[in-house]
Amino acid sequence: MICGKCGETYTIFITDYKFEKGDYRKFCSRKCANSKEWSNEHKKKLSETCKNSDKVKIANQLIGLKLRGVKRNKSEKKEKEKISFICLYCGEVGYDDNNKNRKYHSECWLKCSGGIRNGSSRGKHGWYKGFWCDSSYELAFLIYCLEHNIKVERNRKGYKYYYKEKNHYYYPDFRVNGILTEIKNYKSELTNIKLKSVDEKINIIYKDTIKPFLNYVENKYGKNFIRLYDK
């Protein structure tokens, strides 16, 4: 065969069928094939095809809008699909745009949670009937209050204190009949600093004064009452 670009002779092996169809290599090398010259008619045809393509039309429109300083209408943006969830506090359906793992309405979370991060303590923590508890002592106290019709809710107010050259916030555990109540295992210097930051009445229940609440729960549910945490 003779190369259509450089005129050099080259050899190919094809069947008669492909030769008759013209389905074979017309150039001796890739270099010659890539350097072939298009006719003006063919160039015009390619140009018209590109100009009429949808992608080119959209691109030109966007460039024109940008040059004129026209911003896209927010309503034209694709709306995000809302994600549904079942609130663990009220049991009603809720919706969120981003969070796939959301479990509470904002107002329900404020009702059942405190200001501290759940699970930040070292106690045996978990949820019980919509209340977060950070220790078995808190759970025993909460069960006692709920089963004796004592008004109890998680405290959401924080009190600023200064410790080790840093500012922190202290969140007492509960409000019982409107009065702050803190469950503590033992006394410490840090505990005293935290308590001094509180500017209202607060009841402290330590290890030695938690026994009535603990005995009530253990006698009714057994010593392994932490199994009562919601699964």
Commentary on this structure:
With 231 residues, this protein is an alpha+beta fold. The protein folds into three domains: 1-35, no CATH class; 80-112, no CATH class; 117-228, no CATH class. The chain contains eight helices and ten strands. It has a four-stranded mixed β-sheet, with helices on one face. It has a two-stranded antiparallel sheet with strand order 1-2. The protein has a two-stranded antiparallel ribbon with strand order 3-4. The longest helix has 14 residues, at 54-67. The model has no long low-confidence stretch (mean pLDDT 79).
In round numbers, the mean pLDDT is: 79
How many strand segments? 10
What is the helix/strand order? HHHHEEHEEHEEEEEHEH
Apparent shape: elongated
Low-confidence parts = none
**Helix percentage:** 25-40%
Strand residue content: 15-25%
The largest pleated sheet is described as: 4 strands, mixed
Radius of gyration: 38 Å
Number of domains: 3
| SS-based class | alpha+beta
How many helices? 8
Strand order of the largest sheet: 5-8-9-10
Task: Provide tags for this entry.
231 residues; alpha+beta; 3 domains; 4-stranded mixed sheet; two-stranded antiparallel sheet; 8 helices
